[in-house]
Here is the input.
Amino acid sequence: MLTVFLRFMPQTFFFANSILGAALVVNDGNHFKPGWKVLSSRTAAITDEEHSIAYRVGWIDANNNGKVDVGVDVVDFHFMLQNSTGKWSVKHK
Here is the structure.
């Protein structure tokens, strides 16, 4: 089972909404293997058969207008896996 912890960040609009993004990830994940869920906190307990991933959304408001402008602003996201040591692994380009 893969468990998603959502790091809440203040965002506006659909493309930078980490709550909506995490819900979509969980929904997609459950199509492949049932049991995906959003944890209540970053320290919530998981079983030995679960894995914890974090989903982080970043947004740079290039024109400072307070909303996401597709094609102008930079919106990205990252997935990180929590290792058995408690540390996080993330793949960068």
Helices lie at 18-32. The chain has one helix and five strands. Residues 1-14 have pLDDT under 50 and may be disordered.
